[in-house]
Amino acid sequence: MNNRDFKGIWIPKNIWLSTELSALEKVLLAEIESLDGGEGCIATNQYFAGFLGVSKSWVSKLISGLEKKKFITLELVYKKGKKEIDKRIIRRTPIELEDNTLYDNSDIPIAPECSDITEEEDNINNNNIYNNNSINNKVNKEDKLNNINIYNNGLQKIVDFYEQNINLLSPTIYEEIKTYLDDGLEAELIIRALKEAVDRNFKNWKYAKGILDNCVANKIKTLHDFEIEQENFKNKKKNNTKKIANTKDYKEVKADMSEKEYAERLRKEKLRQQREGA
């Protein structure tokens, strides 16, 4: 990316001094803007991961965070006539400057002494726009190639299941699903979590996310491991129920027994418990 033909970036004071944003989020915002040729940034998480030197799952978390903080908006574009996602578009949210004007990536403030732009400078600016669009086109090709790998990991199957059984997929949930995939969770496991939500009549992402967060906490990444854990839980619950059913309060039947019979009953019960404990 060293051959990118642009002079640099300009970061608004509101962004640069924001205590709400981490340094990495500020850099990511700047890169998103530099890749926006006017129609939004279509760079993939894989590209941002290479640029920032972090994992794709971390990029997903950063983008989700920026969207929740309303610094960016996300849009999912579907292939024409299909339910398959073609690309994601990221747009910077316009920022209100101190003079109450709005700043977006098409309205970079110019100092008064530099307001007279020469024809040569205008050509340079046009070249910058052209080259940024060229980068976006290159990123678009990378995005399509990367989508093949993503779909091989089952992302499209997850999207299909979600939209067929729960609701239309929002860009934020799309990013969170990719985070789980990037963290190593099988697509089949994510679909199973969604199915659990549907079967229990909790048709929302929050319920499925709770299951997946529990899987991450317990280092469960495959459907096979999840099913084993579920089976162990059922067996444990079954044994506890059986144990409770076999436990009797002998004080309740004491009234129908003599003291001697009651003492003998307690003695036998104690022996039985000792044998089971051994």
Q: Could you give a quick summary of the protein structure above?
A:
With 278 residues, the protein is mainly alpha-helical. The chain has eleven helices and four strands, in the order H-H-H-H-E-E-E-E-H-H-H-H-H-H-H. Helix 6 packs parallel to helix 8 (187-199).
Describe this structure in words.
- The structure is a single chain.
- The protein is mostly helical and 278 residues long.
- It folds into 3 domains: 13-152, Arc Repressor Mutant, subunit A; 155-225, Orthogonal Bundle (Arc Repressor Mutant, subunit A); 248-277, no CATH class.
- Helices cover 59% and strands 7% of the residues.
- It has 11 helices and 4 strands; from the N terminus they run ααααββββααααααα.
- It has helices spanning 13-16, 23-34, 45-52, 56-68, 119-152, 155-165, 171-182, 187-199, 205-217, 223-246, 259-277; strands at residues 72-78, 85-92, 95-96, 102-103.
- The strands form 2 sheets. Strands 1-2 form a two-stranded antiparallel sheet.
- A hairpin with a 6-residue loop joins β1 (72-78) and β2.
- α3 (45-52) crosses α4, α6 packs parallel to α8 (187-199) and α8 crosses α9 (205-217).
- The longest helix is centred in the middle third of the chain and has 34 residues, at 119-152.
- The chain is elongated.
Helix content: 55-70%
Strand elements, count: 4
H/E topology pattern: HHHHEEEEHHHHHHH
Which structural class matches the secondary elements?
Answer: mainly alpha
Shape: elongated
Oligomer: single chain
For the record, the CATH architecture of the largest domain stands as Orthogonal Bundle
Overall tally of structural domains: 3
Largest sheet: 2 strands, antiparallel
CATH topology of the largest domain: Arc Repressor Mutant, subunit A
Helix run count: 11
Q: Mind telling me the CATH class of the largest domain?
A: Mainly Alpha
| Euclidean distance between termini CA atoms | 69 Å
Ranges where pLDDT stays below 50 over 5 or more residues in a row are 105-119, 250-254
CATH superfamily of the largest domain: Winged helix-like DNA-binding domain superfamily/Winged helix DNA-binding domain
Radius of gyration based on Cα positions: 30 Å
Strand line-up across the major sheet:
1-2
Kindly state the mean pLDDT as a whole number? 77
